[in-house]
Amino acid sequence: xxxxxxxxxxQCLDDITEPNRASAFCKECKEFxxxxxCLKQHAKFKLTKTxxxxxxxxxxxxxxxxxxxxxxxxxxDPILDGADGTPYLQANLRTEINVRVKEDREICSIHASIxxxxxxxxxxxxxxxxxxxxxTAERNCKAFLKVNHGPRDICISNKDxxxxxxxxxxxxxxxxVNTDDxxxxxxxxxxxxxxxxxxxxxxxxxxxxxxxxxxxxYAIQLLNYSGRLMRNxxxxxxxxxxxxxxxxxxxxxxxxRVIMSDFGNHTVSGIxxxxxxxxxxxxxxxxxxxxxxMNGVGDIFVVGQRSHNIxxxxxxxxKKGIIYSESPMEFPGGIAFDTINxxxxxxxxxxxxxxxxxxxxxxxxxxx
Length: 368
Known about the structure:
Neuraminidase
């Protein structure tokens, strides 16, 4: 049987590291399907075929006939040292927080989040077109901001802890939001629609699309706090800088390094604001990276939306491991790190009303 690479789902191209965890096999297309969601969509995009699906025992029989090894891949072992010799970290679920409020009309879709100095968390709900400020101890919503379009990304100002920078879908500006009551105090103009935002040492950094030609070009722009363009990083002008849907951003505490997730290229790029590209991280177990964050020592944690996991990367782009990839983890969303308490928040299941809280703890170590 000529099967199209069992490691990839025929619908979403998700990397199936363990074939016995596939949901189904299509005899007509000769493709594995990774989840029930992809199974529902499979026939819609291939209307010229009559699909015949195999499940359960029939699915196991196909895997056996193909001679596919169903043992877990060695590279996904969660009990390993990091590549730099430091203990591997593992995420342990602590609790869940319901982030639905009375104003919501859709299921929550948290695409970005940040932790404030007082321990409260701000979540950007794309579907409900809102920002929400939650007291994580009391588990109640302290403030709510309705915007005209869905919020894409948010970050805390490195100039004023009482300010948040907010990117709104389709808007050529950055909203400056007060953290006390989530009111917009002013706007910083931008030359194009923005996708991601973070702070650099002299202002605000955004991923955007500029139209110097008909098709437009993706770019990273370094702005000062008034919106004046200080540096324009276009892919064609910088070595190793490639764009194909550059979306989310984060930065280190000094604002010297900017980290960007590229949804289209399945990569994470580290950029020094003075010298350029530091690294490009690409891994077979990272598919469609979206929201990302950093801890107090500069390590990077990035959400793989279609690989349904969270990668741990060093500040120089070396893979330290996958800290979480267990169920439930389907199309995860915004992630935020609490550096004081060494915990992080993430929406494990996209389009749900809860976010999960995890502790980070070292696991048993062994040589790779």
